[in-house]
Amino acid sequence: MSHDRGAIGVLLPCDIPTADLIPFAREADAYGFDELWVAEDLGYRGGLAQAATVLAHTRRIRVGVGLLPAGARNVVFTAMEAATLAQLHPGRLDLAVGHGMPAWMRGAGAWPQSPLTLLREYIHALRALLTGEPAHTDGRYVRLDGPRLNPSAVPEQAPAIFAGVRSPKSLALSGETADGTLLAEPVTPPYVRQALHSINPQRPHRITAYNVAAVDDDPRAAVAAVRPALKALGDVDWKPHIEPLGFYDELAGLRHCSAGADAFAQAMPEQWVEQLSLSGTAAHVRDRLDDLFLSGVTSAVLIPAGPTPRASLATLAGVL
Is this prediction's pTM over 0.90? Predict the structure, then answer.
């Protein structure tokens, strides 16, 4: 049930109890969310396995995988998996690839010396493979001597390829090579406008934006619900997201002075929390979504915050 200007999706929490995974997906489908995105965070569940499961147990909702780290997956075998899902569930799959979190990827032994070079080579090869073309490349990281999908394995509609990126150079690469850009939370209109300036798309380009979200008739209860999910924001990796809002230095200073991430999250001023999340009454969150769509977002993905994922999903459905 998309707004006039864009689609509304929801993220399947990476730590959702196993027994709730399929019911959450089915309920998101039944409520009318346009999209359901699954994450591949290190140590949790695999992105393609989750996508296969929720696609098989839902009837119409579009499923995005966001994101697959290029350094961890051979591009030919990624194409085989994605093509299979796209054949079985035509028109319902989006695929985001990216660098992955540097600390995670280093810990997994999969961080390249040049992440930008790898991502460029990877997206070009993945696009060729998913459309049934032979892939010839002698790149720095991706070296392929003509592999291709068997004609019987090529989907009629290839999934859209998103780049999950954040630095100006990687955003520009996304605009050059990908069908869309996946922006991780927090995503605000000033950040979207700055990102689009770097992306500089030369053809139709989708912007999917993640945001922690909570809906409650009591706005302060909604703000309290999202606070714990914002505890990482004092780290330097989030500077590009917050700097356009004008208070990054203050936020980083608060993080430095706080006795741990949890204390930092609790000490953040309510005004900051409101700007860095989609929290409040359903009407207020709808207005915030409209602001995102006006700034250039084509799909706003809500990350459920609250006591249980399914209860949070039910309240988030109030914005549809």
Answer: yes
- pLDDT for residue 235: 75
Q: What is the CATH architecture of 7-220+278-319?
A: Alpha-Beta Barrel (3.20)
DSSP result, 31-87: HT-SEEEE---TTS--HHHHHHHHHHT-SS-EEEEEEEEGGGS-HHHHHHHHHHHHH
Domains of the chain, residue spans: 7-220+278-319
- pLDDT tops 80 at residue 3: no
pLDDT tens-place string over residues 27-40: 999 999 999 999 99
Closest CA to 159 of 219, 70, 263, 78: 78
Q: What is the mean pLDDT of residues 50-67?
A: 97
- Give residues with Cβ within 8 angstroms of 271, minimum separation 6: none
